Amino acid sequence: xxxxxxxxxxxxxxxxxxxxxxxxxxxxxxxxxxxxxxxxxxxxxxxxxxxxxxxxxxxxxxxxxxxxxxxxxxxxxxxxxxxxxxxxxxxxxxxxxxxxxxxxxxxxxxxxxxxxxxxxxxxxxxxxxxxxxxxxxxxxxxxxxxxxxxxxxxxxxxxxxxxxxxxxxxxxxxxxxxxxxxxxxxxxxxxxxxxxxxxxxxxxxxxxxxxxxxxxxxxxxxxxxxxxxxxxxxxxxxxxxxxxxxxxxxxxxxxxxxxxxxxxxxxxxxxxxxxxxxxxxxxxxxxxxxxxxx
Length: 294
Description:
Layout: H1 5-32, H2 43-96, H3 104-125, E1 128-129, E2 132-133, E3 162-166, E4 169-172, H4 177-181, H5 187-199, H6 203-207, H7 210-256, H8 260-284, H9 289-293
Antiparallel strand pairs: 1-2, 3-4
Helix pairs in contact: 1-8, 2-3, 2-7, 3-5
């Protein structure tokens, strides 16, 4: 078979095209920092990368849910702590007014102080977060206590909400107002009875509220302990996802990130090969008048 000028030209052009394509591939790797940017370049690698990214998106959502739950539980625990302090102050006032040195006047003053403590407790119990009443349970759109009618007592329930913190794993993210305020002693009602006993100058009625006060304090303490346990679990969950995320990010990097040093070496070598091909082509493709006459 006779080798014509056209055949040589086509072969040279094909060779130059392949070199140019490789050159562009190496340049793209360096500029993007990725071994591949299209599935056709590495179907298996692209599938793995997409799977890793999907996993990372899920982890980010879990971590976001953990952060949201922690925020609510932290605020709930701090609020319960403040309420516990108020009840302790009320208990000290109650004890001071059961002694023989107490007088009708001192009990009247103490009743005013306890009334202030009760109003503060109602205010704290009606704390809102993200437009929902923290201790309302399923009745999150209405305040747990009516500040104008304290004797109505706790109006919430034991419902709450959960957040997803793992694949098929949920966690209760609500602070139970029912456990803190309505099971079995309602601290607002206890303080109301204490106020009535002080205003009536009745030492027996005042003393009768000491045990209910202790029960109210125990309810607050128990709910704080439960919240604390869930906060510890959230911390452990977040630590798990932090470590897991680092591992997945490393696997993703190993799959798709380019070795920059190697990529630069490959690019330099390809540039040299391309220049050599151009030099060879300039010598091979030199058509003469005789070539055209053929």
